[in-house]
Amino acid sequence: MAEEGTHGAQAEPWVAAAEDSLTVTDNRTGETYVVPITEGTVKAMDFRQMKTGEGDFGLMTYDPAFTNTAHCRSQICYIDGDQGVLEYRGHPIEQLCDQSTHLEVAYLLLHGELPTKEQLDYWVYVVTHHTFVHENIKRSMEAFRYDAHPMGMLLSTVGALSTFYPAAKNLDDETEHWMAITRLIAKMPTLAAFAYRHNLGLPYVYPDNDLSYAGNFLSMLYNINEPRYQPDPRLERALDVLWILHADHEQNCSTAAVRAVGSSRVDPYSAVAAGVAALYGPLHGGANEAVLRMLERIGSVENIPAFLQGVKERKEKLMGFGHRVYKNYDPRARIIKKHVDEVLEAVGMDNPKLEIAVELEKRALDDEFFTERKLYPNVDFYSGLIYEALSIPTDMFTVMFAIPRTAGWLAQWHEMLEDPETKIARPRQVYTGARERDYVPLDQR
Ligand code: ACO
Fold first, then answer.
1. Taking CA atoms, which of 6, 174, 223, 386 is between 20 and 30 Å from 336?
2. 3-class secondary structure per residue, the chain
3. Count of C-beta atoms within a 10 Å radius of residue 56
4. In this predicted model, what pLDDT tens digit does every residue of 219-276 receive, in sequence order?
């Protein structure tokens, strides 16, 4: 039982299970409240009952950028930033990168279980047979300016897909969910490759259904008048691994955008377009480009000590190091690093930036400034080098990220729809503006 002057945020059993609760005294009123703790969290709504009097709205929590607010319960992606652990549906990222493919991982994210052989064959078959886009989609992409940013093209074209598949609005129809999921995963590489070819002034290449998901993408990028483009298996695998690594990363900015926009029950094409828009921003998808620029500026291995000194004096930032969540080696960086050499060998390129990157990492990891602050390489430290080796221009980097992240966005969107706790996302604000001001006619201002 709650003591006198003590309010249980919920009735039994929370008040009785004192060890799973928080006791809060509101010093404005002297009242004490018992707030239940479940799964390491307290409910923000449990604070609303804490009022100074009748007309008081009640206490709210203030958390700009949601740095300490869980906005959903999810079973898709687990991260332990201190230990450097990343798991999809409980499967370690290292095992998936070693043994799986991006499409199998997409299935895992969406369904929660690895597919059987029959399920995987069917999934690969249906995705492969939805890679073509309506000719009017192709024409609408052709209408962009010759130098249109490929991510801007992708963003608007993904939104436009909703007009080609109006039945996707029917969110009560589970079959429509899966049609939209399949179409988006299948068509995203096609749209990305069309945007790439557009910038180069080259004709768009139609999908080749006899190639793998990654192999077909390479064909749509690079095929010049060959009856059948044969992707180098090393490039195909490196790209597929990069896509596994980028498939999901729990409640990041773009995923939170997909969930928030999707919570209005808009169609999934529009919700995913919101994710693409969020990823377009330099604070989200653009760090690998900054790493390449930094390596270019350093120029040679001899300049590394001076550069690191500049970082310590806070004149520079070591791009590709540090992470909001990982306070250990980003497990994705370790995996990418293994593939850089292979890709450079496949394209017959000796990139001097790789030598600088490897030495820079070694020296930084030997330096107290970085170790004390738990600054380790993140996923972007090496991914730009792979894209550069694949002749992918920096403007395309966020597009390359959007292709695999589509699987994660859709898994999270589907989970949100099925969650009985889902309501339209509608945060509160702390109003700090003026009140009750009279309108002043224009000639009197
Ligand atoms: N180079 C030099 N110092 C750094 C770096 C860095 N890359 N990152 C953090 N620090 C320092 C900070 O100056 C701070 O030092 P102080 O305590 O002496 O003031 C300390 O390390 C802690 O850093 P915070 O800024 O508190 O870390 P936060 O978690 O807010 O930032 C972030 C994380 C934004 C990723 C940051 O590490 C950074 O800017 N890194 C470089 C950019 C980058 O690589 N971004 C890609 C992230 S991965 C992704 O988004 C897919």
1. 223
2. CCCCCEEECCCCCCCCCHHHEEEEEECCCCEEEEEECECCECCHHHHCCCCCCCCCCCCCCCCHHHCCCCCCCCCCEEEECCCCEEEECCEEHHHHHHHCCHHHHHHHHHHCCCCCHHHHHHHHHHHHCCCCCCHHHHHHHHCCCCCCCHHHHHHHHHHHHHHHCHHHHCCCCHHHHHHHHHHHHHHHHHHHHHHHHHHHCCCCCCCCCCCCHHHHHHHHHHCCCCCCCCCCHHHHHHHHHHHHHCCCCCCCHHHHHHHHHHCCCCCHHHHHHHHHHHHHCHHHHCHHHHHHHHHHHHCCHHHHHHHHHHHHCCCCCCCCECCCCCCCCCHHHHHHHHHHHHHHHHHCCCCHHHHHHHHHHHHHHCCHHHHHCCCCECCHHHHHHHHHHCCCCHHHHHHHHHHHHHHHHHHHHHHHHHCCCCCCCCCCCCCCCCCCCCCCCHHHC
3. 12
4. 999 999 888 899 999 999 999 999 999 999 999 999 999 999 999 999 999 999 999 9
Question: Which amino acid residue places its CA nearest to atom 40 of ligand 1?
Answer: 322
Structure tokens at 37: 């703790």
Closest CA to 346 of 212, 236, 192: 236
List, for residues 418-429, the tens digit of each pLDDT value. Answer: 999 999 999 999
From ligand 1's centre to the CA of 372, what distance in Å?
Answer: 13
Identify whether 323 is a catalytic site residue.
yes
pTM to 2 decimal places: 0.91
Gap from CA of 379 to ligand 1 centroid (Å): 13
Q: State pLDDT tens for residues 110-131.
A: 999 999 999 999 999 999 999 9
**pLDDT score of 183 more than 60:** yes
- On whether the CB atoms of residues 354 and 301 are closer than 8 A, the answer is no
Give distance in angstroms: CA of 322 to centre of ligand 1.
5
pLDDT at 144: 98
